[in-house]
Amino acid sequence: MARATERWGYGKRLWIKRDDLTGSVLTGNKIRKLEFIGAYALAKGYRTLVTCGGVQSNHCRATALVAAQLGLECHLVLRADERDAAATGNLLLDMLAGATYEVLPAAEWGRQLKSTYRHLEEAFRTQGRPALMIPTGGSDSLGVWGYISAAEELGRDLLENDVTSAVVAVATGSAGTQTGLTAGAAMFNLPLRVIGYAVCDDATWFNRRVATDWASSVERWPSLPNIALVPETRDHSVGAGYGLANASTYELIAELARLEGVVLDPVYTAKAFEGLLSDIQAGFYDGVDDIIFVHTGGVFGLFSHQEELMCAIRSVQPERRGH
Fold this sequence. Notes:
Elements: H1 2-8, E1 13-18, H2 30-43, E2 48-54, H3 58-70, E3 73-80, H4 89-96, E4 100-105, H5 109-126, E5 131-133, H6 144-160, E6 166-172, H7 176-187, E7 192-198, H8 203-220, E8 232-234, H9 247-260, H10 269-282, E9 290-295, H11 306-316
């Protein structure tokens, strides 16, 4: 990103891995995980994919569309967040893809999700439509293969662009992408330092989750090497919490879109990119020449943030008059 490098790089080169271009409506990092999840569902004879997330969940939208492509049914368990009541963005795409869904109040999400999953699994089995129960974000010992594969791909990217070592920065929310990249970099002995930028919770939670998910993956798949991962997470750009962004985050979305034609989202990528830029400015990456930002998608979620984005657009560039 030549102009972003000039604007924010402080002598470093800023690269972007466009995982927001993994499809059209199938955009985003979830597709890499669902490639393996979908194949497993077909191989094992499942007829339904069940997963969960917020009403504007990128993962739920991607799962609904993958299910439609594979001729499977899809059912979503959605969390009713305050701003997401309208049938717009990801929820509209869920409905277009034919997914059925139910909505749990946000306050009851933690208490009800496990029991809801148990009920749905039994109900679909009884109806002769066995369901593969997919966790939030597709982040488990099956989905991890998606970003192990992506790490191998990044290794080829380094060679093609004559980059001898780099930091890989990525938004982390359910830890699956972070786990796969961290494990893949270690497995393939890549000159990559993977750093997750938390969009919820704190660094301790994510580092523990990565280690736990990797241990589960090694236990499930004997072909994986039993290597000790050392995850790194930064948590200073979480802000007020998951899905809650500051005015500066929205302004960064508008500025990067005008600078590079790259559109971030306020839930994941913009928070991570903002955290990355603050770390660069603070000297956290002194001695690093190349930084690769993984764009994990999320553009459809923008449409439930219209008011904040319009304020950011006016802030970045005053309204033009005339034609």
